[in-house]
DNA sequence: TTTT
DNA sequence: TTTT
């Protein structure tokens, strides 16, 4: 609750994919999203326009995770305020690996959908579309397998994630998920 | 120069070690520091006070790197404003690895020393002490081997880091360095 | 150029009106916009939903002012990063008054249009519409009287605003503009 | 509780005076402080070094106000995170006036003392000194007239400030206070 | 004055 | 993978 120092990340960018929603044993939701930010500049040497995209791994917890799961979609533009967190995990060979994420949680976390009518009131169901005005989806049913448990696979240390809510960060142990492509983490 | 989105990190914390300064082939300085931020809370289950420290890897470039090298020391408190950047490297076994850092560079980067008279005027030499009022050192000579070259080891692709200054991020290739203590990366 | 301390404001909100563009004697552009942010909550006493809107006075300078004048319109959603600045002026009775603004200028200033295709490429002229997809206008001609001079009225102290560009803030002297309604400043 | 938009201010600077603490009818504490941030640059025309100081009016509420009253002193360096708020009041002649402040309150508000051991543990009493290592005072008794009531003067509209805690901003009515020196408001 |  |  108290903190020594400041650990704050602010992002505005677009989702590279639909959010992935999971539920912790406690029932709390976790949403994982990836957000792109980019910079462009003119290369002084070649004179050509160049662009570099940075991909950010973001984890939202609790109510914000649910909102993300319901309203955000691939391409959605979003404002995120969270904190940096590096978590340790073991790869297949048992070697320590570290993954840094932006954790959006509790009172310090902010998630604001940008750029459109706020998913509000217009009633019309989404019908499978992927993108729409303001570029987020309609409220979505938790879909597929709701409340599926968080499944720590090779690491069997259940206790630690049974964390009481007063912890500053509800941690979770899992290897970084599989991504189907060359996302650099 | 132009950017699409916002990628901003703000940290206030203390250095876990003295800065490590290097120089790129271009002569530009790079300072690597690690900054601790922490949170404490009362564990509702056990009733005891708990604390969690997060370590942040920060890379400063150019003038700010020089200032960091001269004035910051282990324990120094600092305000940092930079951006998140994940860079790819290969470990000993040739496997891809990713490291996320806070890059402080150019016009968007800010580094402010906190907690003391600003390295200014009081004249008295430091005499080897590690920490002092305001907890940063006196201006330090680049020491040891100044202007030592940045040494990309297994990767021999010099050209890319010959980047013109107009690039948003001067990149550099190196495995994460060794730390002599329990900083988890 | 150097700074002691941090002075940063971050806003995401919608414009209450079209930007007002002026030009300083130097030819530099200044755009004044007002941005709304709001909070809503359930009143515990009455049980009803309540909302409070905060209006922010923002001044953009230079290139960002030009971009604002061209692309932003009443209702546009925008991300702003600037600094707080309070300037002193005299009201009709000669009494000192102070107005606080968010100044967006130079390398520390950021303005990002949110929520739509970035004014780019689709070619179709705007045809007098006030709002469109993504809610900003097409590039607009400086309209009316371009390059009209900044006209300090009752205060005739031209020299101070002849400021060299290396000043951290190009100041300008003018009474707060007339607003046609109850904007609270 | 919910918010549309982002309204965030981040300051790092030094207090121009000791905090002024008051108590609202509800018993909640309010601390008013002024924080200086400054920028310096070399005047290109004259070649001389110049400096400009910006003064920020900050109001802290609740627990943070109490901490501010106990530990902060004139000269203390502090990190502040709050939101911009402009409040209306009437001057002696009944004219509407507006004052913009940085409000630090609730879950979004942050106040971090910088630059010293955190009031903790070193035991040695302060002995009336005003400033010390790390530049903040020892815990201070609320002094003088604790729990003195907030005194709305010309405005007698008690009810509105009887606000339930779920309101985003506990407002208070008062003219800006007198400062004994050259702080420009 | 915006927006939802 | 996004977006312009």
Describe what this molecule looks like in 3D.
- The structure is a homotetramer of 185-residue chains.
- By secondary structure, chain A is mainly beta.
- Chain A has a domain at 9-113: Beta Barrel (OB fold (Dihydrolipoamide Acetyltransferase, E2P)), CATH 2.40.50.
- Chain A is built from one helix and eight strands.
- A five-stranded mixed barrel of chain A has the order 2-4-5-7-6.
- Residues 117-133 and 140-185 of chain A have low confidence and may be disordered.
- Chains A and B meet through strand 1, strand 2, strand 4, strand 5 and strand 6 of A and strand 1, strand 2, strand 4, strand 5 and strand 6 of B.
- Chain A binds two DNA strands through residues 13-17, 34-38, 40, 51, 53, 55, 74-77, 117-121, 135, 179-183.
- Chains A, B, C, D: Plays an important role in DNA replication, recombination and repair. Binds to ssDNA and to an array of partner proteins to recruit them to their sites of action during DNA metabolism.
Chain-averaged pLDDT of chain A: 74
CATH class of the domain at 9-113 in chain A: Mainly Beta
Helix content of chain A: under 10%
Instruction: Tell me the distance between the termini of chain A.
Output: 30 Å
Percentage of β-strand residues of chain A: 35-45%
> Over all CA atoms, what is the radius of gyration of chain A?
18 Å
Question: How would you spell out the order of helices and strands of chain A?
Answer: EEEEEHEEE
**Quaternary arrangement of the chains shown?**
homotetramer
The CATH architecture of the domain at 9-113 in chain A comes to Beta Barrel
Question: Largest sheet of chain A, order of strands side by side?
Answer: 2-4-5-7-6
Number of beta strands of chain A: 8
Structural class of chain A: mainly beta
Q: What does the main sheet of chain A amount to?
A: 5 strands, mixed, barrel
State the helix count of chain A: 1
According to CATH, the fold-level topology of the domain at 9-113 in chain A is OB fold (Dihydrolipoamide Acetyltransferase, E2P)
Protein name (chains A, B, C, D): Single-stranded DNA-binding protein
InterPro entries (chains A, B, C, D): NA-bd_OB-fold, Primosome_PriB/ssb, ssDNA-bd
Biased composition (Low complexity) (chains A, B, C, D): 127-171
Pfam family, one (chains A, B, C, D): SSB
């Amino acid at each position: 609750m108290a903190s020594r120092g400041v650990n704050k990340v602010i992002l505005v960018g677009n989702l590279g994919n639909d959010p992935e929603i999971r539920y912790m044993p406690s029932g709390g939701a976790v949403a994982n999203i990836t957000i792109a930010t980019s910079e462009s500049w003119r290369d002084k040497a070649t004179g050509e326009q160049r662009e570099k995209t940075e991909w950010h791994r973001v984890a939202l917890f609790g109510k914000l995770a649910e909102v993300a799961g319901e309203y955000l979609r691939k391409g959605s533009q979003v404002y995120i305020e969270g904190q940096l967190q590096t978590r340790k995990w073991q790869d297949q060979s048992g070697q320590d690996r570290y993954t840094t994420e932006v954790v959006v949680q509790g009172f310090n976390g902010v998630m604001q959908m940008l750029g459109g009518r706020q998913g509000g009131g217009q009633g019309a169901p989404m019908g499978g579309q992927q993108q729409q005005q303001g570029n987020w989806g309609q409220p979505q049913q938790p879909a597929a397998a709701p409340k599926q448990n968080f499944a720590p696979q090779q690491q069997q240390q259940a206790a630690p994630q049974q964390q009481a809510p007063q912890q500053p960060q509800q941690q979770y142990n899992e290897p970084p998920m599989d991504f189907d492509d060359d996302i650099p983490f």
